[in-house]
Amino acid sequence: xxxxxxxLSIGEKVLDKVMPDPNAKAEAQAKLMEMAQRGELxxxxxxxxEMQSARDREIQxxxxxxxxxxxxxxxxxxxxxxxxxxxxLFGVIIFVDVDADSKDILIYVLGxxxxxxxxxxxxxxxSSAGSKEKSAQLDxxxxxxx
Length: 146
Hints:
Layout (H helix, E strand, L loop, with lengths): L3 H15 L3 H42 L5 H27 L4 H26 L3 H17 L1
């Protein structure tokens, strides 16, 4: 799938060739930008719904009496394991004398685990303030549409 910027660039090049009139071209570019904004809004709305759906699913599993205990604890156990392993690797790198070749591998694994911990924390404690602002803006826009 092409990124939004590439699609806009292609659309503008087509408009340059097809519409020599500057006024018609400006109007077509405005419509193109409006379409891009609507598409971006739809993508953002879809992302917010997907995140909420995942959280709702976790709540349903955790509160369901029919769900096996394994289903209820697998996500928190994996999250805690990821965070715990990350701290253990930090400790190993800081306090244990490790061979240089092994240390490079440990640092690589630690980098991957650190990004996983970022996702875990974002999932459990919400995302960044910027994402919250985007969600609030999206809610405002959707309320205005209705």
